[in-house]
Design a protein that fits this description.
The chain is built from eight helices and seven strands. The protein is of the alpha+beta class and about 180 residues long. It has one domain (about 1-175): Zinc finger, CHC2-typedomain (DNA Primase, Chain A), CATH 3.90.580. Strand 4 and strand 5 (about 60) form a beta hairpin. The longest helix is centred in the middle third of the chain and has 27 residues, at about 105-135. About 25% of the residues are buried. Bound molecules: zinc ion (ZN).
Length: about 180
């Protein structure tokens, strides 16, 4: 059976090609504010904007309900679709060709692999966001600057920071799930 080849390389290619501001703008009226954009969160009811999109980091974050992630997460949440579908739809929209090859892997096995990959990606984005945004991570940012890490390197390798909280990631994951059910 022919399967799309959704490896790391093609995922990064889609992520680079996808304009997160453009994608979010389909659902949210965004206003520029410094290096990022803000608007009313599409995942919870609010009157003043706490939803932020950062086009450099290619991520979004709502400080009201905790929804956040990359362009793939946004499309999955808002359209209620799976990771593979989100990738295909973004590839289509931003003219990235996904190669295909023959595979013996069963549909269930394939979905499981994709699911595990996506969970790891979500965790990676979460820790990366901590590093670049959290007040608590200021000393870590200073340390990395001292060691000669540029913003570009930090983004490229998805360097992250774990806050001093043993359940930080699980809280974000739970909030993200709740917001989808709401
Ligand atoms: Zn929200």
């Amino acid at each position: 059976m022919k399967r799309p080849v959704l490896n790391d390389h093609i995922k990064e290619e889609i992520r680079d090609a996808a304009d997160i501001v453009d994608v979010v703008s389909d659902y949210v009226k965004l206003k520029r504010s410094g290096n990022s954009y803000t608007g009313l969160c599409p995942f919870h009811n609010e009157k003043s904007p706490s939803f932020h999109v950062n086009p450099q980091l290619k991520i979004y974050k709502c400080f009201g309900c905790g929804a956040g992630g990359d362009v793939f997460n946004f499309v999955m949440e808002i359209d209620g679709i799976g990771f593979v579908e989100a990738m295909k739809s973004l590839a289509d929209r931003f003219n990235v060709t996904i190669p295909e090859m023959e595979s013996d892997e069963s549909e269930a096995g394939y979905q499981l692999t994709e699911g595990v990959y996506h969970a790891l990606r979500f965790a990676g984005v979460h820790f990366h966001q901590n590093l670049v945004e959290a007040d608590e991570a200021a000393h870590a940012r200073e340390y990395l600057t001292k060691r000669g890490f540029t913003t570009k390197t930090i983004r490229k390798f998805g360097i992250g920071y774990s806050l001093n909280s043993f359940d930080g990631l699980i809280k974000v994951l739970t909030m993200s799930t709740c917001s989808r059910r709401a």
